[in-house]
Amino acid sequence: MSFVILIDWIIKNALTGLDVGLEWMNNSKLCDLDYAYDIVLLKTSVSGMQLMTEAVENEGKKVGLYMNVGKCNVLFSNDWRDDTEIKIGSSAVERQLKISAVWAAF
After folding, report:
1. Which residues does 45 contact at the CB level (< 8 Å), separation at least 6?
2. Can you tell me the distance from the alpha carbon of 64 to that of 87, in angstroms, rounded to the nearest whole number?
């Protein structure tokens, strides 16, 4: 449980003040989704996604945590036209899956 709290703290500190995320309700932004130990960063541009990834990586390093590029994936829609790689350090994150829609039940 304390690991999940630490991850939430890292993401909050990393993304506070950045203009990132998806437009959400009441002029707010949805920046991430968390489930157990899985984290999804949300952005509609490669430059924004790279900014978010670097910010979370740098904040995590402050407490001794590092992103494992081998366990990360970039998910994108069929409308995505930018082939620029998202990188963690000098390693590119694998582009795993093209999707046209995401359905979720809450």
Report:
1. 82
2. 19
pTM recorded for the entire structure: 0.81
State residue 76 phi and psi, 5-degree precision.
-145, 160
Listed in sequence order, the residues at least 6 apart from 91 whose beta carbon sits closer than 8 Å to its beta carbon are 69
Find the angle CA(96)-CA(71)-CA(15) to the nearest 5 degrees: 95
Residue 56 in contact with residue 88, Cβ under 8 Å?
no
Whether residue 40 contacts residue 53, with contact meaning beta carbons closer than 8 Å, is answered with no
CA distances from 78 to 17, 26, 28, 40, 97 (A): 30, 28, 26, 18, 10
pLDDT on residue 38: 83
